[in-house]
Design goal:
By secondary structure, the chain is α+β, with helices and mostly antiparallel strands. The chain has one domain (about 5-125, about 130-210). Helices cover about 35% and strands about 15% of the residues. The longest helix is centred in the last third of the chain and has 17 residues, at about 195-210. The chain starts with 20 loop residues before the first strand and ends with a helix. The structure holds cobalamin. Cobalamin binds near residues 73, 94, 98 and 110.
């Protein structure tokens, strides 16, 4: 949770009230999150974007009871700066592959929703002394392993090169177990997504690119 500053670009509530607290909702790794999702009717019925609609069904009533509203990472474009907001709520750092990283669970978190509240909730955050683990990572395997060099510190993330590779026969490892670069990171391997969970996101990524006519 965090108390937004103007630079966070948190919009007002639809009533015009200012947002005084933001609760970030997400998952770290697969675990119970993935098992609960797999039991949802959204997943079992193969709804379009089932994780988004499942999250919406669960989180919106909770926010509504507290007089709040919910924003989702997929709202957009333009997208809300969920990575920035997550790094205001937790100690997270930018990694060279664009994903944000924790010194504990690596890049294995994802954001599912942000609950905006018109009240200021007390936060008992302890000040964290940890620094960005990427700064002391000499080998940087995440930047070396991608077969199509989709990650370039200067050029950024070449997502079309990534998508073409993942959709090809040569990209079967990324498609079925998740991004090779993300898996090469030495931080928090115990939080790595299960193959089934990773494959779900990779196929959503590829199907969206196909729908857009990009690959
Ligand atoms: C558009 C998008 C994509 C596009 C990227 C297009 C492109 N040209 O880069 C596509 C569809 C390709 C994509 C793919 C994936 N994405 Co994406 N994506 C987004 C989305 C919806 C919007 C990003 C955005 O434009 N934000 C707007 C800006 C203004 O927000 P911001 O927080 O201020 O931006 C900060 C970061 O973007 C960061 N940043 C951005 N690029 C870079 C690059 C470098 C080098 C660094 C250091 C920082 C950095 O700096 C900004 C300032 O803080 C976000 C959700 C969201 N709403 O943020 C997810 C999000 C970033 N994606 C996420 C993920 C996990 C993925 C995938 C790994 C999913 C998968 N298939 O498993 C893939 C593959 C990427 C990979 N192999 O690394 C997660 C990241 C979680 C994390 N640990 O950081 C997010 C937050 C979604 C979520 N639900 O959690 N994604």
């Amino acid at each position: 949770m965090f108390h937004p500053d103007p630079e966070d670009n948190v919009p007002d509530l639809s009533s015009g009230q200012s947002v005084l607290s933001v609760i970030m909702v997400g998952n770290i790794g697969s675990g119970d999150f993935w098992e609960s999702f797999k039991r949802s009717h959204e997943y079992l019925n193969s709804d379009p974007d089932p994780m988004d609609s499942w999250t919406k069904r669960i989180v919106e009533p909770i926010a509504g009871k507290a007089g709040g509203e919910v924003l989702f990472p997929s709202d957009g474009p333009p997208y809300h700066p969920f990575q920035r907001w997550a790094s205001r709520a937790e100690t997270l750092f930018p990694s060279p592959i664009g994903l944000f990283i924790s010194s504990e669970w690596g890049t294995w978190h994802a954001l599912r929703a942000a609950i905006l509240l018109p009240v200021k909730i007390e936060i008992s955050n302890t000040v964290s002394e940890v620094s960005n683990p990427c700064l002391s990572c000499e080998d940087q395997p995440c930047l070396k392993i991608c077969p199509v060099d989709a990650f370039d510190v200067e050029q950024g993330y070449e997502y079309l090169a990534c998508a073409h590779h993942v959709a090809s026969d040569a990209g079967i490892s990324c498609a079925s177990k998740g991004c090779l670069a993300r898996r090469a990171c030495p931080i928090g391997p115990q939080y790595m997504l299960s193959s089934e969970h990773a494959e779900f996101h990779m196929s959503a990524f590829i199907n969206a690119r196909k729908l857009m006519g990009e690959i």
